[in-house]
Amino acid sequence: MRAKWGEITAQELATLIGGRQISGSPDVSLGGLSTDSRTISPGHIFLALKGEQYDGHHFLTDAVDAGAVGVIVEPDTTIPQDFATKGLVVITVASTLEALGDLALRWRKQWGGKVIAITGSNGKTTTKEMAASILSLRENTKRSPGNFNNLIGLPLTILSLEEKHRLAVLEMGMNRPGEIARLTQIADPDIGLITNVARAHLEGLGDLQGVVKAKGELLEVMSEDSTAILNGDSEVYDQLAPTFKGELVRFGLGKANQIRAGNIKALGPRAQAFDIYLNNERVPVKIKLPGIHNVCNAVGGAAIAYCLSLSKELIAQGLEEFTPLKGRFQVTDLNGGIQVIDDTYNANPSSLNAALQTVQELMVEEQRLVVGFGEMMELGQEASKYHVDAGKRIADMGARYLVALGEHGAQVIEGACQGGMVRTQTHLAANHAEMIDALKANVRGNDIVLLKGSRKVALDTVVEAMKWFYGISKG
């Protein structure tokens, strides 16, 4: 099989994924594969996945009407009677999710380029984008789009690799044991990087040691011929490092790291400058993001480029050209001197601490901090404790007003009051509209407004409402 759509037949595909073709010509050429009936292109084959909310097996006719030449389904699926008479390809497999991964693995083996895999509790998307910004200056580089970091998104990204691509930078996420191992098996990375390990996804992993073990699956599955890049400042570095038998590169801020940063200088609320040391060779760089955690993300991206022998000039250029991502500490100036910080893409205890530390670095005298906080998802049995701690941390930062939203919003308010805020400085919102009204009633000129929460809480809608109500400053 060549890793090229248009040259794969139905019979070849069925063989690759261990499936059985029950209708259609075995010689039908397949132009691509899709798991969404709404994005089918003519000539594609539709793979029906069973998800938490939708079952693709219910959309077979929609896929065919959109131009699919066939479908891949699980056994006992009711196939429309006219599929056979129309000559449509029907392939059955034991599990469509497993088949997707198996096909991606074989595609990756045939493709011939290099794969970089990035995982971690925080910063993996920013590190991925920073690395891709550097690497694309020398090679045609494919990166995982959006949040395509799971057992569906990662295989689909691999299946979109073409001969023109020479590098692939893939993000790996997880919320239960075994996922990173399977993703690593599929991607077969040449380089694997773990940004950090923190208390996240505890609902499926139990505790910090569960997270360490899950993230460490990357090292256990990677080939001994590959390179692992680990955060040398992490409290769990000494646990992870011995589990990998290949080449190991250490990055971070401390002087013990091979790739590290120093001489960090803030350049206002949207940029900072620092030096990156590549085995003691100094490279001055600038990035369009504040926060020490983003310095570490940049060092991770630089470490990947260094391992691929890119020049220090390209590393500096790629980091300077990196454009900040939506929902990841984006600072917008509003009328009245108000600054709204959109950090709504995700939230866990570690990323909250990073956000609050960065806010503290940005605040000037006389500025007030107002916080709109959505809950942190997937924290398991200790979720209430972590939300109380979050409220205390917000109070410790000197926040003058706090609006909380979500199932654990009451615990956030409780923690804030334990931390010294009075009840009148807080509000528990029942919905987004109530949070917006509370903010509008309490935000004053020159305030910094931090909006932080897990993606499912959708606080980005509150950010957009703030921009509309106050207006974006033109000055």
Question: Topology of this structure?
Answer:
Elements: E1 8-9, H1 10-16, E2 20-23, E3 29-30, E4 32-34, E5 44-47, H2 60-65, E6 70-73, H3 82-85, E7 89-92, H4 96-111, E8 114-119, H5 124-135, E9 141-143, H6 153-159, E10 167-171, H7 179-187, E11 191-194, H8 202-205, H9 208-221, E12 227-231, H10 237-240, E13 247-252, E14 259-266, E15 272-278, E16 281-287, H11 292-307, H12 312-321, E17 330-333, E18 339-343, H13 349-362, E19 369-374, H14 383-396, E20 401-405, H15 409-418, E21 426-429, H16 432-442, E22 448-452, H17 460-470
Parallel strand pairs: 4-5, 5-6, 6-7, 8-10, 8-11, 9-10, 11-12, 12-13, 13-14, 18-22, 19-20, 19-22, 20-21
Antiparallel strand pairs: 1-3, 2-7, 14-15, 15-16, 17-18
Helix pairs in contact: 4-6, 4-7, 5-11, 5-12, 7-9, 11-12, 13-14, 14-15, 16-17
